Amino acid sequence: MTTSMPPLSITSPSNPLIKRLRGLDRKRNRTETGLFLAEGTRLVLQGLNNGWQADTLVCASSMLERPLVQDLVSRAMADQTKTIQVPDRVMGQITRKDNPGAVVAAFRQQHRTLADLATTNSGIWLALYEIRDPGNLGTILRTADCTGLAGVILLETCCDPYSIEAVRASMGSVFDIAFATSDFPAFNAWRKDQGLTMTAASVNGTIRHDEASYSGKALIIMGNEQAGLPPDIEATCDTLALIPMRGGADSLNLAQATAIMSYEAWRQQGYAGARGATG
Amino acid sequence: MTTSMPPLSITSPSNPLIKRLRGLDRKRNRTETGLFLAEGTRLVLQGLNNGWQADTLVCASSMLERPLVQDLVSRAMADQTKTIQVPDRVMGQITRKDNPGAVVAAFRQQHRTLADLATTNSGIWLALYEIRDPGNLGTILRTADCTGLAGVILLETCCDPYSIEAVRASMGSVFDIAFATSDFPAFNAWRKDQGLTMTAASVNGTIRHDEASYSGKALIIMGNEQAGLPPDIEATCDTLALIPMRGGADSLNLAQATAIMSYEAWRQQGYAGARGATG
């Protein structure tokens, strides 16, 4: 497939559209515009295929002839998405990478509240309390997607799932997994309404993480990278679970701990929804 | 504890020692000097406590009065370690961080071969084949340390465990966990000599990861982030294990997959060596 008309070429980094795109590395600008960046043909395609709306598609002029890029350009133009081509140098400035990919797109953010989350009869939910590292958040969304979690709730002040680091680490799962934001009291009322048991991974855990039960409708809650969960939140949990750790070792990375909790809960639910050979 | 003499003050970023330290962000310079950087009082202390030799200790002049920094300075001076103080700006240049910590130290690298690894009668080993992301490597070393793995073997051309990203992500486990480098043939002969069964996590897995057996002396092997393991290496494995994945999801991050494998193997070995409550 070829496009009848090549995308508008912009070469100046001081062009207002380029400046707006470059500015999306800052939270304030993402909030003001409601946009965020996703880089690479695979990610952009995943966003479009999942029904996310692209505001602007930017292609590297040097890679415009690639079939995948051509397809994206045709599709973007058909969707009335602003479509431009830029030199590699400008592409690098937008994505802040030395070796930028062929395309980057600015997508419209989606904001969900607890009311927007689908209620389910079973399945595992994940709540993240005040987590701060966007790489951790993106990695956790990716793992949540792999384990087919029902959804993720970001509690109180978490880092931005639409930051370029989080989107990159999510490897496209930001387009796939349902996530919502909430304060803790509203969340706790919601999870009780939903009949979700709440298990925290905690250094104060009194039962080993794989001896806790995650049957039926279960929710795992993980705390901040440094501080964990506050005592009053731990007090509202049904179970405090301890992930075993070698004597002398410090602590697991938050995303690693979340993966261990998620896979244990999913194991107990018979890996429902898994693909391929299962032994 | 106070030092009788304050550390030599260097303020110019073009001072040869400062330039040498700044250069340690490059693999070539780390190889030439045999040094690597570890930032922060906690990490530096962990290195010293584990018997690693510091070549140079750098302190931020603005934080020289802190008791922990004073202790490190006294200790470094007693060890004949070069000890200097620099302005925050120079500290930021050495560590390439906007908010650098109070100290950074250049430590001597340690290089182990298979022959240097302690042989054990049981326990879990981990081999990493051509992994490329230093953040993944550091995170994996941290998790290997938490699960008390017997050791880690870096096969063929892996990223550098002494890069600043790997050291940072390891949170000090680089000083704690035994790791060696090897080519694949020598490694494979060694693991057979040791009587280690070899299980790969693979998309070609024929048995679920938690239905594979990791009893006695077991080794887990993980492949490259993009390509996984080459077919001829998979063919030498005793077991190819599949980590379940939701239909439609892409793949797990390598460090996440390694954590899931390590914890399953450790679970089967009764969490030997774990601290605290175990349910």
Explain what this protein looks like in three dimensions:
Two copies of one chain form a homodimer. Chain A is of the alpha/beta class. The model of chain A has no long low-confidence stretch (mean pLDDT 94). In chain A, helix 6 (134-146) packs parallel to helix 7 and helix 6 packs parallel to helix 10 (254-268). Helices cover 34% and strands 21% of the residues of chain A. The first copy, chain A, is built from ten helices and twelve strands. Chain A folds into two domains: 8-108, Ribosomal protein L30/S12 (60s Ribosomal Protein L30, Chain: A, 2-Layer Sandwich); 114-268, 3-Layer(aba) Sandwich (Alpha/beta knot).
Q: Identify the most extensive interface between protein chains.
A: A-B, 47 and 46 residues
CATH fold-level assignment of the largest domain in chain A: Alpha/beta knot
Main-sheet strand order of chain A equals: 8-7-6-11-9-12-10
Structural class of chain A: alpha/beta
